[in-house]
Here is the input.
Amino acid sequence: MSLWIFLLTLEINLAIYINQINIMDKISNLTDTVEQVLLKDERCRDDDRLLTAIVWFNVIKDGKYNFSTMSAKDLLDLYIKGVMPNHDSITRARRKVQELNPELRGSKYESRQGYQKDVKKDLGYG
Here is the structure.
């Protein structure tokens, strides 16, 4: 009985470990994708909706789906199934890329930083 429990525990831990590796690969790939989009299209540096649309378009194209014949339902099905990266994950990746690569920050970055003291004060942090 204890050998069975040991093997079951080992199998569960292995599945968790493999899942964590897959998640880390997805995050790394998404970060690389976002960085490439920011390099190619400066408009995406200040526009998360455009960035998301381009990333999704690339996922569809690279996944061998036919964007021209897809319906909105097909697109939503891909999103629900996890084929399309979550908008929040894309914007999180953009923030990380821009943190590490200041040259990829948008033109609005500096003006937003000017409001930082006021926002901190309003939130009770400063």
